[in-house]
Design the sequence.
């Protein structure tokens, strides 16, 4: 069933309604294995809704989602979701937070702690194993969440504005960190962000979503060599892509603001 | 709902209806089922009429009580009066003490620990002391009910006074307002929602205290009506009194909540 | 609601520490002042119904050497422990179960809140009718006094478990049981601790009221017996004893709550 050419995500004609609110779609979404796809769009257009449908945290009103060639039938072992910052458990230490996903899967204490220790090293938190989340900065907490997501060796990561609560500099650093991690494990990524810069820096493809009910109004391929760093953002093709996305979003946002009045 | 859900049950959205009925409907169903089973149980003959009477009889008799002049004047009005007096007293004293605590740090430090543990102390143990000192009249009841309800008013008002944003206090100082102006124009309005919450609770506590003291030891009053009926083996009047008191307490709480909510700017 | 409790705990942490004299000094000074006022006023009044602190302590001392009184203390403590334990366990488990379902919480809570606002003491005769005078009836009544608030606190706490944490658990495919053990229980621990403190005071009040109304032993019964014998200094001494007996577990529970909050409630 799953071969090298089956996309990791294929969503067809997905739509969502909340009572009278038509929140999303219909949209089609295709992500190849190992591909990094970002979605940008005005606030409230349905980005999180789409991500949650792909992650089996919401049932779509209509449409189908296939992951790795099989229809979604519940949260999937090899899909990892990275939420915004406070998805760390405040009563667990860094190490136990990172080991949480493994613990839930019934991995033995010794094994999961060894693995977690390794991951803590990888995300640069060595020495903080026994700290509690409240003792960490927002960026460090987000690293904990990333380490937890990596612990289950995912082939698909869904990230909903994971750096949304961080300041500009930390965001950039974290984005580079994420790139490094994703490159090492080679998984597909669906990444939602408000930052056009971030989307361009990270993605192979940026999808622009129009105002609610969100549908994709543009698809911008990003042809920058990998591995990338923030330096790549000043290249000609990167600035062009940013301009193009910004123009789309601005016209959408203007219409949305006018119609809300 | 379309096909089977793929979402774990605990993150699914709350359904608006279950079996075609909204939550409010189920509340009513639960209530009716409870009342009906009580009624049936009482009528089934499985329980002596000395222990339990049907709900319908409780209700009829408690409505009859309203026509009884002695009951209305000696019990209902008297208890209502006691509750009102204690409530007003604890509202005034409570807000005053909370203001003093928020203004003077040493008062705050001396009293805060007591406010924290107050409701762990069985304050009703003081009632016999008060009865000895003041007799079985209204005074000990008012004293105890005021004492019992004032602390919850203090605790809540204090939260209100202390959560006035510092920027607002700075603004007041920059406008060179006098302390009384600050209190009336800034502190009171800003603390109002918490004070109102405290007052609602305070009324509940006053009601509990008045009825409990009357019930334990008093010459008359709503609580005493239940006590006397129990001691006279008058089960019908006892249940009627209980129903009456329950409805009375519920209505009083609901009325005050509705009245106070209209002042609450946080809910507008 | 959530924002508010966070705000309160934050303020609690900041106002608890002041420079200068230690935190226990001002409340002790206040207590000392009250005792002095009591002593002076009673010696001025020089009345048989208003004994001073020395007489109260003296009579308490002689009470404590009477085996009947000690039996009453032990009785009250035993019944209290049982009913408190039952109220905490049943209230918290049932509350958590209901809190997990938002729909059924919405349906059932209005009824429980209404029930909780009834002055429960007037229901005590029903307990007497069905359970007779003795440990069963006053223990059950104390249990009911404590279990409703415990239940309500736990329903609210469970309903307030972070939606984000629920989503994360769902994304890991956690079973309901695993969710309860790993997410729900740790999240509600601070509320559980607060509920345990509150529940203790309410259970004790319920028990004492029940004993005061009718009993053959227990501290509440001793109070009313002394009242009918007009032994005021004994009443005062026993009130002091009850206060101390209530305060010790409350302070311990407060410490427990503080510890749990430090560990589990630290949201950044
Ligand atoms: N559970 C829900 N119930 C009702 N309406 C909802 C619900 N979840 C989302 N919506 C509505 O659906 C629309 C899309 O929401 P969604 O959260 O997907 O937006 P978003 O694109 O992620 O926005 P943002 O960028 O602000 O996070 C919004 O208008 C929102 O109000
Ligand atoms: Mg969103």
Sequence:
């Amino acid at each position: 069933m799953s071969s090298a050419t089956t996309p990791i995500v294929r969503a067809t004609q997905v739509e969502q309604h909340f009572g009278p609110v038509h929140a999303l779609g219909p949209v089609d979404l295709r992500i190849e294995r190992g591909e990094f796809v970002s979605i940008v769009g005005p606030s409230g257009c349905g980005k999180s809704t789409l991500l949650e449908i792909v992650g089996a945290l919401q049932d779509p009103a209509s449409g189908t989602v296939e992951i790795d060639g099989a229809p979604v039938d519940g949260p999937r072992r090899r899909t990892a979701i990275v939420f915004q910052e406070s998805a760390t458990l405040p009563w667990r230490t860094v190490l136990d937070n990172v080991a949480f996903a493994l613990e839930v899967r019934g991995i033995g204490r010794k094994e999961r702690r060894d693995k977690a220790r390794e991951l803590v090293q990888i995300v640069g938190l060595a020495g903080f194993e026994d700290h509690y989340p409240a003792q960490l900065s927002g960026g460090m907490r987000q690293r904990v969440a990333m380490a937890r997501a990596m612990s289950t060796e995912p082939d698909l990561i869904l990230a909903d504005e994971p750096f949304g609560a961080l300041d500009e500099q930390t965001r950039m650093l974290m984005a580079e960190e994420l790139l490094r991690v994703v490159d090492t494990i080679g998984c597909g990524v669906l990444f939602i962000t408000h930052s056009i810069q971030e989307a361009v820096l990270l993605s192979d493809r940026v999808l622009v979503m129009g105002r609610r009910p969100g549908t994709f109004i543009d698809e911008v391929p990003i042809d920058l060599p990998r591995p990338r760093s923030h330096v790549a953002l000043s290249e000609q093709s990167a600035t062009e892509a940013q301009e193009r996305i910004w123009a789309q979003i601005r016209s959408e946002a203007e219409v949305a603001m006018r119609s809300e009045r | 709902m379309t096909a089977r859900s793929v979402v774990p049950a605990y993150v699914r959205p709350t359904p608006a209806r279950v079996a075609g009925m909204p939550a409010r409907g189920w509340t009513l169903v639960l209530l009716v089922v409870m009342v009906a089973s009580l009624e049936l149980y009482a009528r089934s003959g499985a329980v002596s009429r000395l222990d339990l009477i049907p709900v319908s009889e409780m209700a009829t008799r408690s409505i009859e009580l309203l026509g009884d002049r002695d009951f209305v004047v000696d019990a209902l009005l008297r208890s209502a009066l006691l509750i009102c007096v204690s409530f007003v007293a604890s509202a005034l004293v409570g807000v005053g003490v909370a203001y003093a605590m928020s203004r003077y740090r040493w008062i705050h430090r001396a009293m805060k620990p007591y406010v924290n543990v107050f409701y762990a102390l069985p304050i009703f143990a003081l009632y016999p002391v008060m009865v000895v000192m003041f007799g079985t009249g209204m005074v000990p009841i008012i004293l105890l009910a005021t004492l019992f309800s004032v602390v919850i008013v203090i605790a809540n008002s204090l939260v209100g006074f202390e959560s006035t944003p510092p920027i607002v206090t700075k603004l007041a100082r920059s406008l060179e307002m006098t302390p009384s102006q600050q209190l009336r124009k800034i502190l009171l309005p800003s603390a109002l929602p918490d004070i109102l919450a405290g007052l609602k609770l305070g009324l509940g506590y006053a009601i509990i205290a008045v009825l409990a003291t009357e019930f334990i030891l008093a010459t008359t009053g709503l609580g005493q009506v239940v006590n006397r009926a129990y001691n006279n083996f008058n089960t019908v009047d006892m249940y009627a009194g209980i129903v009456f008191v329950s409805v009375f307490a519920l209505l009083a709480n609901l009325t005050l909540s509705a009245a106070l909510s209209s002042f609450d700017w946080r809910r507008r | 609601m959530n924002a508010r409790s966070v705000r309160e705990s934050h303020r609690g942490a900041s106002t608890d520490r002041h420079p200068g004299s230690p935190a226990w000094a001002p409340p002790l000074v206040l207590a000392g002042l009250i005792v002095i006022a009591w002593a002076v006023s009673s010696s001025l009044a020089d009345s048989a119904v208003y004994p001073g602190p020395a007489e109260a302590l003296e009579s308490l001392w002689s009470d404590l050497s009477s085996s009947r009184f000690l039996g009453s203390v032990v009785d009250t403590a035993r019944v209290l422990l049982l009913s408190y334990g039952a109220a905490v366990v049943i209230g918290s488990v049932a509350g958590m179960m209901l809190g997990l379902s938002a729909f059924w919480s919405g349906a059932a809570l209005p009824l429980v809140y209404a029930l909780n606002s009834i002055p429960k003491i007037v229901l005590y005769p029903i307990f007497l009718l069905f359970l007779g005078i003795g440990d069963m009836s006053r223990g059950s009544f104390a249990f009911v006094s404590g279990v409703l608030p415990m239940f309500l606190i736990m329903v609210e706490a469970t309903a307030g478990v972070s939606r984000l944490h629920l989503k994360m658990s769902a994304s890991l495919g956690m079973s309901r049981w695993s969710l309860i053990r790993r997410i729900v229980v740790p999240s509600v621990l601070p509320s559980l601790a607060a509920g345990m403190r509150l529940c203790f005071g309410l259970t004790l009040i319920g028990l004492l009221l029940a004993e005061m109304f009718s009993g053959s032993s227990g501290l509440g019964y001793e109070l009313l017996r002394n009242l009918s014998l007009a032994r005021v200094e004994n009443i005062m001494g026993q009130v002091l004893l009850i206060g101390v007996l209530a305060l010790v577990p409350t302070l311990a529970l407060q410490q427990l709550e503080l510890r749990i909050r430090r560990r589990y409630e630290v949201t950044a």
Remarks:
- Chain A touches chain C through 29 residues (CB under 8 Å).
- The radius of gyration of chain A is 18 Å.
- The mean pLDDT of chain A is 87.
